[in-house]
Each structure stands twice: as structure tokens, then as C-alpha cells.
Amino acid sequence: MLPNRPQNLPATGRLGAMSSEPLSFGEMLRSARERLTPADVGLESFGRRRAAGLRREELAQLAGVSVDYIMRLEQGRVRTPSRQVVASLARALQLSRTDTALLHRAAGLTPPASGTVSHHIPAGVQRMLARMPDLPLAVFAADWTQLASTPLWQALFQAPSVAADPNQNLLVQTFIDNSIGKVATAQGAPETFERALVWDLRRSAADYHHDSRFQAFTADLRTRSPRFATLWDQGRAAAHQSMVKTVHNPLVGDVVLDCDVLVVPDSDVKIVVYSTSQQGTDAEKLDFLRVSATRAI
């Protein structure tokens, strides 16, 4: 046995890589949990740890499921978790695309196919989320489904974590719920932001013309929102990049921030980050929310 390595972790560091028999879902879950530390996922380590890796309670918190459910999965008493649960666990455990596919297969599910909108967050982006909690930062899929966010993002926008509400989608919030305008206003007019959002989605459409879920999503938006339909039917396509926004926060009032959108290489996920200069009223308001977010954790 190699020293300083959890007993259940394969020697290669990949799930099930050294075994001739495929690992069960529970074995994969336990192995992946044991190879992460609290620091890897942005959590404080507390108390005496009898075993390496994350506690079940910590994984449950990150994935938005109960501790009892994690235990039953690892013990094999539950063998068929839902696709949503598997995706949440894979993100919480910072699995690679290969290991995410293996975890899906172990649950009896078809892995996410190429040419479909991926909800996989690369490990490097996971590290950014864990190590940069003092920035209002969130990660989105190509269809603008939110995949993860930092505590400061949640404090700034008074929004739940993805674990608490996995169905947050920026397009739905903008064109169906009409809730985003109450939270933030783009410099110039709300239409500036709406155009940027739709044109970015139109840009992604070329990559997902065989993705039935993506096609159904855009068709539903066109049916339910005349504003979206008008912008979509213009046929314009452009990457959503940067703009200035005023965020309407109930604790500190209006905060004027720069909003930048970054695309991750070899991935279709987007990182959205808000920032301001180091001095001034807006920086002070952000600092206040930063302290509030830290206390909430």
C-alpha cells in the first residue's frame, strides 16, 4: 500500500483505474470524497478527523443533499440516484469529465454526450470558486443555467446557492420571471443586457443544434416571452463580454460594478465576475457585503 494515500483511492488517482472490476457507485463516491480536503472546496477544517478527506456532512452541504442520503449511497442501499443528484455530486467532488462519465454509468445513467450543453465545471474553475470567495463570482453553462457561485455573489444578489436551488437560469429570470430587473440594471438601459444575453445564446446555438433539451429550452422562451422572441428572431450572435451594472441590494443600496464574462478554454462554461476599484463608496459597500457573507458561512 502506498503511504499517505486513503485505502479506497486507486493508485492512479482516477476512479476505479486500477481495478479489473468497475467500482460501484457507492465505492466511487467514497473514493472521490476521501481524496478531497476541506481546503480544496473552500471549507474550514474543524474538529478531529478520524479519516482522510471530506466528511459526509461536508459533501452533503456542497451537493445539496442529506447526510443520510450520502450514507445510503455509499453503503449501496440506494443504487439509482437521479441525473440531477449525480451531476451535483460530480461538481461538489470536482470530478474530471472522464470520472463524471464513470459516475453516471455507475448510476445506470447515460453520461452527458458531446454536442449537448454541459454542466461540468473544470477542476481549475472549482479551485477558483474555493480560493476566491471574496469576489462576487458565478459559473454558468452555455444556456445560462447557474452552476455555482461564491458566498459574496449570493450576498450581493440576495440569491440562494446552487445547492439550495439548482434551477436558477439567467434567461428565465430575465425574460420569464422578470425578476432580474429588480436586482440589477445595465448601464444605458435594461435592453442592453437583454440583447447581450440573447445574442450570446444565439452564438451557442450553432454548437447545440442537435441538443434536444437546448432546442426545447429556446423554443419555450420564444413562446413565453415576446421580448425574447423579438431579439432571438433578429438572428444576431455575439459573445457576452463586459458591461457596467448597478446592483440593487437591500442591505447597502445601489452598487455600481463592472461585470466581466470570461470563457474557460476547452469548455463551454462561463465565469461571471463583478468588481470595482479599491476605493470609493461602491468598494465600501462591497466590503460590507463581504463581511456579511463571511459571517453567514
From TrEMBL:
Ranges for region Disordered: 1-20
Q: Name one GO molecular function term.
A: DNA binding
Read off the SMART domains from this record.
HTH_XRE
A Pfam family of this chain: MLTR_LBD
UniProt xrefs under SUPFAM superfamilies:
lambda repressor-like DNA-binding domains (SSF47413)
Top-level taxonomic group: Bacteria
Show the ranges annotated as biased composition (Polar residues).
1-10
Q: Please give the coiled-coil regions recorded for this protein.
A: none
List each copy of the HTH cro/C1-type domain by range: 49-100
Name it: Helix-turn-helix protein
Q: Lineage of this protein's species? A: Bacteria, Bacillati, Actinomycetota, Actinomycetes, Micromonosporales
